[in-house]
Amino acid sequence: MEPKYFFTILFLTTFLSFQLSFSSSTQADQQNKYSTFIKSSCSSATYPSHCVKYLLPYASAVKTNPLSLVKVALHTTLRSANATLYTVTQLYKTKSITKWEAAVLKDCIGDIKDTMDELKSSIKEISSIPKSKDKHFAISNAQTWTSAAITDENSCLDGFSDRKVNQAIKQKIRNSIVNLARVSSNALYLINHLSV
Asked: 98-133: per-residue pLDDT in tens?
């Protein structure tokens, strides 16, 4: 091989290696920056570990945008509410439950459906912020809707405080509602700390 071509190939190979290495490093730095944003945003949340667990998978979508973080938190909460509704509905369909348990589960289904409607209203308010003339009013409405959702979740849990409910049913509902309440509380925390 002629020295002229050898040095050209060597130069191109070195240059391309550097470019690929730099690009890879930059992407990793960006992802680290996005993850750090979520972790720091969650650090003072009501349930920080839950906050990180549920929101960190969305770091590349959220980037470092607080409004996007709140939207993702609310959508995550809505998915959790949907999973809770499924759990409660499956228990309600069980043949071995008493009439009292069926009544409590039916009330809880209503509470969770109300929670889901309130979360959808909160998402709608947060989504309206970029075009809103009164951003603080939209945030206030989102706070109200999310607080109402938490109240309905607690209402469902209160229905199971009676001793007439089977312990296994009570525990399944409690686990599901407590998880939902934690992600809801974290979403409310992020709304409360949203500055526009």
From this structure: 998 999 999 999 999 999 999 999 999 999 999 999
Give the integer Cα–Cα distance in Å for 116 and 193. Answer: 22
List phi, psi (to 5°) of 45.
-65, 165
HSE, side-chain direction, 13 A CA sphere, residue 168:
4
What does the alpha-carbon distance between residue 160 and residue 167 come to, in Å, rounded to a whole number? 9
Question: pLDDT for 59-95, tens place per residue?
Answer: 999 999 999 999 999 999 999 999 999 999 999 999 9
The two structure tokens encoding residue 65 = 């945008």
Cβ contact 28:167 at 8 Å: no
Q: Is 0.90 topped by the overall pTM?
A: no
- Report how far residue 153's alpha carbon sits from residue 112's, in angstroms, rounded to the nearest whole number: 6
What beta strand segments (E) does the chain contain? none
Q: What are phi and psi of 95, to 5 degrees?
A: -75, -25
Do the Cβ atoms of 78 and 127 come closer than 8 Å? no
Q: Tokens 């009501």 map to which residue?
A: 46
